[in-house]
Amino acid sequence: MQAWIIYEQEDADKNKAYIDWFINEAKFLKVELTLVYVHQIYYGVRNNKLFIESNQEDSLPDFVIMRTINDLLSRQLECMGLPVYNASSVASVANDKAKTHQLLAQHNIPMADTFFLNRSSLIKQGFHEFPFVIKEVDGRGGKQVHKIDSYQELKGIIPRLNGQQFIVQPLAKSGKDVRVFVIGKQIIAAILRESNQDFRANHSLGGTAQAYVLTTQEKNMVDKIVELFPFGMVGIDFIFDDQDQPLFNEIEDVVGSRTLSEHTEINIVRLYLEFILADLK
User: Fold this and answer.
1) How confident is the model at residue 120 (pLDDT cuts 50, 70, 90)?
2) In terms of domains, do 194 and 253 share one?
3) CA 61, CA 59: separation in Å to the nearest integer?
């Protein structure tokens, strides 16, 4: 079989070892997996029909592993009959924190109170309770998340925000979260991330990590979320309230697995590729 793994070139340069892992595992499973950069793909409408081409590959693949956030490209591939992992329906929700909370709240998933605001309403909104957390809806890796302690601090941060849509939440119990790795409908493993220096527990921001055994309550919460999506591979993150009860935080579509590899013997790439091949059948 032929397959593409699609990255933005800048991200691919940072993740060369991970990409090589994918390519080698695919070869073991008799799949020729080729790295294709987004800028090498041309697509749109030609002669009233959708088209997609790559200046690197002469023919289209049997399936695509999408490792960048590009709903339009994912949907174009799907419209032309190519299976994409994760599907565009997953990416369009998971990469918008407001849409994710809006959907999951309809299914009684526990979460922090969450307010949906655009840039204009953020400026005009009268906030009376501090501290709170503001997040750009399309932020990743904790880098577009800010703790706000006062109205003056809010006024100072607004010009530095890149997006137009935000969510605002009360500050939850600081510096602790759990990432659950999911493939298809199956929970693979969970990692507890903690930080003594930051309200964000992201490993990339200096937090520590260790393998974690989900409680029955936490597992049931993840299982309910899993049933709502045609997941390929994702990370489902939750935080904790003051009573140490789990609260849904976000779904990571283009999820990395560095912490999982460091703290378990799980070959998540092999499992993901095996899932894809089984799903295609």
Assistant:
1) confident
2) yes
3) 7
Task: Let me know: does 84 contact 78? Beta carbons within 8 Å.
Answer: yes
Which residues lie below 8 Å from residue 191, measured CB to CB, with a gap of 6+? 178, 179, 181, 209, 210, 211, 212, 259, 260, 263
Residues 158-217: tens digit of each pLDDT: 888 888 999 999 987 767 899 999 999 999 999 999 877 655 555 454 578 999 999 999
Let me know: does 207 contact 201? Beta carbons within 8 Å: yes
Q: Are residues 155 and 181 in the same domain?
A: no
The pTM is what? 0.92
Domain ranges, residue 141: 115-170
Whether the ω angle into residue 86 lies within 30 degrees of 0, i.e. cis, is yes
Amino acid present at 190: A
For the chain, the domain total comes to: 3
Q: Provide the terminal-to-terminal Cα distance of the chain, rounded to the nearest Å.
A: 12
